[in-house]
Specification:
Strand 1 and strand 2 form a beta hairpin. The relative contact order is 0.23. It is built from 2 helices and 13 strands; from the N terminus they run E-E-H-E-E-E-H-E-E-E-E-E-E-E-E. The chain is an alpha+beta fold. The protein is globular, with a radius of gyration of 16 Å. Helices cover 13% and strands 31% of the residues. It has a domain of 110 residues: Alpha-ketoglutarate-dependent dioxygenase AlkB-like (Jelly Rolls, Sandwich). The structure holds 2-oxoglutaric acid (AKG) and manganese (II) ion.
Length: 203
Amino acid sequence: MATLQNGIKHLPGYLDRVAQEHLVEVIRQIVAEAPLYVPVMPGTGKPMSVRMTNCGSLGWVTDKAQGYRYQPIHPVTEKPWPAMPTELLELWKKLAGYPKPPEACLVNFYADDAKMGLHQDKDENAFEAPVLSISLGNTCLFRVGGLDRKTPTGSFRLSSGDIVLLGGEGRLAFHGVDRIYAGTSTLLKNGGRINLTLRRVNP
Ligand SMILES: O=C(O)CCC(=O)C(=O)O
Ligand SMILES: [Mn+2]
């Protein structure tokens, strides 16, 4: 395990291939019930390149009019999000060091040309809890900075099965995904990358 700037933790290869394949199957079932949709930026309405869905009692959503927020229903189907799978609850219990379970799991799907700009995860009211991030599929270049957008950033690769914990001082660190490296994993038949982030929203 590597502890990076601000105490951010990187656990390379935490999930073995069997566990990764199982999680992909679990996510396929979630996506069948709660389809991936194209999120748009608040204000401008500019579409993001990542497609999203959620599971858990709350899901992170964004749209032009109401912006970033958590809500209990899918913005397109207007149905409650699928339940948080036990596999994810178990990972949180082992790694998060926080007594309450995560309420939201944001599922991000990156096609090989998708990316995510530098941002903070700050729409939660429970910064004492970490954000636990799981990478599946193609490798990405992940960028992390400090608590200020101007703090110099560093970047490293996240591969399939890696876990990152944004916790402690690093909970509000700026981070983003600069690029996906096509063809670096055989986990997802059509390429791309899945990222799952487990979040506690209420203290
Ligand atoms: O894809 C990743 O590794 C990070 C995703 C992320 O930062 C987010 O969804 O807030
Ligand atoms: Mn984030």
